[in-house]
Design goal:
The complex is a heterodimer of chains A (about 150) and B (about 150). With about 150 residues, chain A is an alpha+beta fold. Chain A folds into two domains: about 5-45; about 65-140, Alpha-Beta Plaits. Chain A has five helices and five strands. The mean pLDDT of chain A is about 95. Chain B is elongated. Chain B has a four-stranded antiparallel beta sheet with strand order 3-4-2-5, covered by helices on one side. Chain B has helices at about 5-15, 25-30, 35-50, 80-85, 115-125, and strands spanning about 50-60, 65-75, 90-100, 105-110, 130-135, 140-145. With about 150 residues, chain B is of the alpha+beta class. Classes of the chains: A alpha+beta (about 150), B alpha+beta (about 150). At the A-B interface, helix 1, helix 2, helix 3, strand 1 and helix 4 of A face helix 1, helix 2, helix 3, strand 1 and strand 2 of B. Strand 5 of chain A pairs antiparallel with strand 3 of chain B.
Chain lengths: ~150, ~150
């Protein structure tokens, strides 16, 4: 699948908040609106574009607690744990990752809540459901950067 | 207190804005809100800073990028300078101080193969005050879906 950088560039920032934003973007690229919309549909169908959406600053939306929890799971349990964790609405990201000597944690969950207590409740629920025993709650203390990737 | 209509619009817009000629009209039609109200609410929350961006969410890997999550142990006195230096790199999209032995965490994406990621990690490891730096590339993705019900 050929990816047109100009289309990605038009979507990696903000789309204009006007009734027909894609017509406006397409005009800037010298394309008919239908061509631009078709290109977006292709990117979506190919899984390159997950979605066009509003991205919320979670702290401003009242989700003041956010913790990355690193879990140490036996190799055979990682996939079932991952699936269970992914089903929780409080968990936005869930990945199995490589480990390193001295850092045996192989599964990571990003948990968001309105308080530390809410985070602990989600963690407790996962422990109960999966039997996972070893984990580290890595609450964020300071945000230095949070942005979206600029691809082209 | 958030108005019900605001919540409807912000929750729907976090899920998906359809790629059609009048996306905000289409989004509104599903939740019984007019196009004008959808646009008014999105503009207001963007201005307030609750909404950071309205645009595309891409699958980094499918755009030819390699990425990782890295955790560092940085001497507390150097933490801010290291964090600022790392954050200058455009491929670093998230950088947080966290509790625990690895006190600085960041995500890194680089066009091309993992070799480019590893090279950048090695460069960050050489920053003054960095005691250790581990890269934890993804083995399997189970979920990526940020949704914060308003």
């Amino acid at each position: 699948m050929k990816i047109e950088p100009s289309i990605v560039r038009a979507l990696q920032g903000n789309i204009p908040l006007v009734p027909a934003p894609f017509r406006k973007i397409a005009a800037g690229l010298g394309l008919p609106e239908e061509k631009f919309i078709a290109a977006v549909a292709t990117l979506k169908a190919g899984g390159v574009l997950r979605s066009i959406r509003a991205i919320v600053r979670h702290k401003r939306a009242g989700y003041s607690a956010n913790a990355m929890v690193a879990w140490k799971l036996p190799a055979g349990r990682a996939v079932s744990f991952g699936k269970t964790a992914a089903a929780s609405p409080a968990i936005s990201h869930c990945y199995q990752r490589l480990t390193r000597p001295g850092w045996p944690y192989n599964l990571y969950t990003m948990i968001h809540g309105r308080s530390r207590a809410e985070i602990l409740k989600v963690v407790g629920g996962l422990v109960k459901k999966t039997g996972a025993k070893e984990y580290k709650i890595l609450e964020s203390l300071r945000e230095f950067k949070k942005t979206s990737m600029v691809y082209f | 207190m958030v108005k019900r209509i605001d919540k409807l619009v912000l929750d729907a817009a976090q899920a998906d804005i359809p790629a059609v000629s009048r996306p905000f009209a289409a989004l509104g039609a599903n939740i019984g809100v007019s196009e004008a109200d959808v646009l008014r609410i999105l503009k207001a929350y963007k201005k307030k800073g609750v909404v950071r961006r309205i645009g595309g969410s891409f699958e980094t890997r499918k755009l030819g990028f390699s990425s990782t999550l890295a955790g560092m142990r940085v001497k507390p006195a150097s933490l801010v300078s290291v964090a600022k230096e790392i954050s200058k790199f455009p491929g670093v999209t998230h950088c947080y101080e966290r509790e625990g032995e690895l006190n600085l965490w960041f995500t890194l994406g680089v066009r091309g193969t993992m070799a480019g990621v590893n090279k950048k990690i090695a460069a960050f490891r050489r920053l003054p005050g960095v005691e250790s730096c581990y890269s934890f590339p993804v083995k399997k993705m189970f979920k990526i879906k940020t949704m914060f019900p308003i």
